[in-house]
């Protein structure tokens, strides 16, 4: 881990705040903070989504998030602070389900690291989302990044 | 006797697997030498509705992912095994 | 411009807020918001920076920022809302000088568009930063992205 | 007579150029057919300290960038010309 680098990971039922994440990764020697905010959408295949519910295998999710932090620090050694917040429980539409904040002296590192972080999170962190629609059966979603989801399987295999 | 003892382990169910079994967790006793495929078959026998997940599930043993395979799991008494349907975090 | 896409541009002496930018680009049909926050550093070549002062050729800066928005919408047609805030006047160290927020249905578009936006802003928008040090002469900075700065010139030309 | 009229234009100075001239803006009168290099030379004659910027400056005419070149600027009465030192926004 970089000198004084801080990894903050949080799985919470509270509303997420971009300012709180941004402040927690701010550092006096960094010029760049990159943030990614995943928000919940209001429609899926023409059905109106009324809310989302997230659940996690909490201790393992934290473990996998720590692995992502460690991988980021191997790939982008100038990264300073990392904060990954994922919301659990009921999330109203348009509210943030995930916020990732990463600081670095130069912007390309934090921008690339944020992209890697959200891509990897979707593939490896045991968290699940259920969409509840105005009408029709609720549905557990599947990330295409997840290797054992239908969408993640190589059709040629 | 195959030289392996039985181990009582807790199985955690998440997302769709929790809905299909109606359980968040349960204790089961299996051979410590069981493979992940055999363990899955055992869970399917107990909860036939899990069959729909067969081709898109992995297990986590002691919080590490384990695909369904013929590798022995070398379970220890009190281990935590989780059923991991396709992820949808983010 | 995409259906209902909103370009918000602001040059202001007020403190910038990541939450305000994030909220202004949130939309019910978008899953992704990418933010870039440029912060002021506390050191330059071993000298302690006590504050920064920004000035802009305001109407032309607004014009150039609008051109960037228009270029983003040509390159990433799924981009929904764009908000670019740049602070002017005195900016204390570690506070944000620029915040860019972009929303899109899929995250790769907003992530790439944010990177393009900050890269292009540094190269083309008439804004200048002066660093004031604890000791020694203040210094006007030069972006290496600016084609007519010393750092922007091809050394072989 | 070259067929071109004189035009009074306002010149805006920013950042280091404002410090070097001690001015934020001034009105000057030049031939409407002046090139950007000639205009810059005119400004340097008025404000010799601007010379340090010669190799790293562009102009903006009617809020569009114009590099120093032999192209005529076709200035019109009341046009806004700006001296643009290297940018450092962001």
UniProtKB/TrEMBL annotation, chains A, C:
Listed name of the protein: Molybdopterin synthase catalytic subunit
What broad taxonomic lineage does this protein's source fall under? Eukaryota, Metazoa, Chordata, Craniata, Vertebrata
Which major enzyme category is it? Answer: transferase
Q: Which reaction does it catalyse?
A: 2 [molybdopterin-synthase sulfur-carrier protein]-C-terminal-Gly-aminoethanethioate + cyclic pyranopterin phosphate + H2O = molybdopterin + 2 [molybdopterin-synthase sulfur-carrier protein]-C-terminal Gly-Gly + 2 H(+)
Q: Where along this sequence does the record place binding of substrate?
A: 106-107, 122, 129-131
Under which EC number(s) is this enzyme classified? 2.8.1.12
- PANTHER family to which the protein is assigned, alphabetical: MOLYBDOPTERIN SYNTHASE RELATED
| Cellular compartments per GO CC | molybdopterin synthase complex
- UniProt source species: Triplophysa rosa
What's an example GO BP annotation here?
Mo-molybdopterin cofactor biosynthetic process
UniProtKB/TrEMBL annotation, chains B, D:
Q: Which GO terms describe its molecular function?
A: molybdopterin synthase activity; nucleotide binding
What InterPro entries does this protein's entry cite?
Beta-grasp_dom_sf (IPR012675), MOCS2A (IPR044672), MOCS2A_euk (IPR028887), Mopterin_synth/thiamin_S_b (IPR016155), ThiS/MoaD-like (IPR003749)
Compartments, record wording? Cytoplasm, Cytosol
Q: Record's Pfam families?
A: ThiS
Predominant location category: cytoplasm
Tell me where in this chain the PTM 1-thioglycine is found.
90
Reading the lineage from the top rank, the first entry is Eukaryota
**What's one GO BP annotation on this UniProt entry?**
Mo-molybdopterin cofactor biosynthetic process
Q: Which SUPFAM superfamilies match?
A: MoaD/ThiS
Q: How is it modified after translation?
A: C-terminal thiocarboxylation occurs in 2 steps, it is first acyl-adenylated (-COAMP) via the hesA/moeB/thiF part of MOCS3, then thiocarboxylated (-COSH) via the rhodanese domain of MOCS3.
Listed GO CC annotations = molybdopterin adenylyltransferase complex; molybdopterin synthase complex
- State what this protein does: Acts as a sulfur carrier required for molybdopterin biosynthesis. Component of the molybdopterin synthase complex that catalyzes the conversion of precursor Z into molybdopterin by mediating the incorporation of 2 sulfur atoms into precursor Z to generate a dithiolene group. In the complex, serves as sulfur donor by being thiocarboxylated (-COSH) at its C-terminus by MOCS3. After interaction with MOCS2B, the sulfur is then transferred to precursor Z to form molybdopterin.
- This chain belongs to the protein called Molybdopterin synthase sulfur carrier subunit
Provide the species name: Triplophysa rosa (Cave loach)
Q: Could you tell me the gene encoding this protein?
A: MOCS2
